[in-house]
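Propose amino acids for all 322 sites.
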C-alpha cells in the first residue's frame, strides 16, 4: 500500500526533521556517525513525527522549527531502541538491510544505541520538565516492553494481557506521547493534551494489531515483509497468544509445534488454527474498538484540515492491505 500523504506543511516538517536528525547525530567519530546515519536512513513510516507535527498544526502551533526538534528527539530515541532490540532479538535484518550489529559489530552497535539516547535527551533538555518527563517515561516503557516480550524466549508463557502491555509500551505509548507533545506545546491544545494522547495511543494500538495480522495474512509484495517474520524473530504476537489460550489441547499442541519449527510451518494450516481459535476475529474487533476511540478523541480538536488529516491517518492504518 502506498505511503500516507501528509498535508503539504507536514511533509515540509518531516523534511526538516530528517535534516535535524542528520545535524544532531553528527560526530567527529566517523564510525559512530556512520552507524547512526545508517539506522536512520533505513527509513520507516515516520508515523510518530508526522502525528506530532499534524497535532501541533491542528492546534495552531507556530514555532515549527522548535517543535520539529522535539519530534526529532523522540524519533532518535525510538530509533536508538531499535538498535538494541535487534541485538536482543538476534535479528539480522532491519527493513531489508543488515542490522547495525551485523554490519558494524555487536560492541559498536551497543554504543551507537547509547549515543542516540544521549543525543535525544540533549535536545529534549531544552523543553519543559513535563516534556522531559514524558520522554523519560516513554523510554522506560520501551525497556520494560522489550524485557516483557522476552518472557516467551526465556520459557515463560505470555498472556493476552501481557501482549497488550507490550503493544502499549513498544508502539502505542510512543505514538501517544508524540501526539500529546504536539498538543501540549500549543496554547490552544494544552488543556486537551490528554485527549491527544488518547488519540495517539489508540492509533498505535490499531496500527500494531494490523501489523500482527499482516504477519500471517499479508501479501509480501504489498507489505515488503515475508510471512511469519515475527515468529522468525521469536516474537509471539497477540494472534498466537490468543490462540494458545483458546484452542483445544490437541490443536494448541500442534500450534506450539509450528512455533518451534516455524521454518517448516504450513502457513495455511497456521491461519486455520488462528481462525478456529477466534484469534483473527478477536484482533479485528479490537482494532475496531481502538480506531473508534481514536476517532472519538479527535472531536476535542479544532475543525480544520489538519484534524481531518488525523482522521485520515486512522482510516489509512485500518485499511492497510493484507
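Proposal:
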Amino acid at each position: 500500500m502506498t505511503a500516507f500523504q501528509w498535508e503539504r506543511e507536514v511533509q515540509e516538517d518531516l523534511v526538516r526533521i530528517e535534516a535535524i536528525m542528520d545535524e544532531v547525530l553528527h560526530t567527529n567519530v566517523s564510525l559512530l556517525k556512520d552507524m547512526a546515519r545508517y539506522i536512520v536512513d533505513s527509513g520507516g513510516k515516520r508515523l510518530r513525527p508526522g502525528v506530532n507535527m499534524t497535532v501541533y498544526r491542528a492546534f495552531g502551533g507556530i514555532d515549527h522549527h522548535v517543535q520539529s526538534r522535539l519530534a526529532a528527539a523522540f524519533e532518535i530515541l525510538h530509533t536508538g531502541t531499535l538498535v538494541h532490540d535487534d541485538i536482543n532479538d538476534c535479528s539480522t535484518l532491519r527493513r531489508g538491510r543488515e542490522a547495525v550489529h551485523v554490519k558494524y559489530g555487536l560492541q559498536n552497535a551497543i554504543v551507537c544505541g547509547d549515543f542516540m539516547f544521549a543525543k535525544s535527551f540533549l535536545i529534549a533538555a531544552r523543553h519543559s520538565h513535563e516534556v522531559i518527563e514524558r520522554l523519560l517515561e516513554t523510554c522506560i516503557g520501551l525497556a520494560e516492553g522489550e524485557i516483557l516480550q522476552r518472557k516467551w524466549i526465556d520459557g515463560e508463557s505470555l498472556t493476552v494481557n501481557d501482549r497488550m502491555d507490550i503493544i502499549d509500551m513498544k508502539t502505542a505509548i510512543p505514538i501517544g506521547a508524540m501526539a500529546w507533545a504536539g498538543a501540549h506545546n500549543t496554547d490552544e491544545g494544552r488543556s486537551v493534551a490528554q485527549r491527544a494522547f488518547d488519540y495517539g495511543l489508540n492509533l498505535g494500538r490499531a496500527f500494531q494489531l494490523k501489523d500482527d495480522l499482516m504477519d500471517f495474512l499479508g501479501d509480501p509484495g504489498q507489505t515488503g515483509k515475508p510471512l511469519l517474520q515475527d515468529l522468525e524473530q521469536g516474537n509471539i504476537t497477540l494472534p498466537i497468544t490468543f490462540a494458545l489460550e483458546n484452542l483445544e489441547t490437541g490443536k494448541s499442541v500442534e500450534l506450539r509445534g509450528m512455533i518451534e519449527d516455524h521454518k517448516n510451518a504450513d502457513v495455511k494450516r497456521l491461519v486455520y488454527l488462528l481462525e478456529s481459535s477466534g484469534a483473527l476475529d478477536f484482533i479485528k474487533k479490537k482494532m475496531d474498538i481502538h480506531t473508534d476511540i481514536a476517532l472519538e478523541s479527535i472531536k476535542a480538536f479544532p475543525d480544520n484540515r489538519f484534524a481531518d488529516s488525523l482522521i485520515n491517518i486512522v482510516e489509512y492504518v485500518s485499511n492497510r492491505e493484507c
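The first strand starts at residue 93 and ends at 94. The mean pLDDT is 91.
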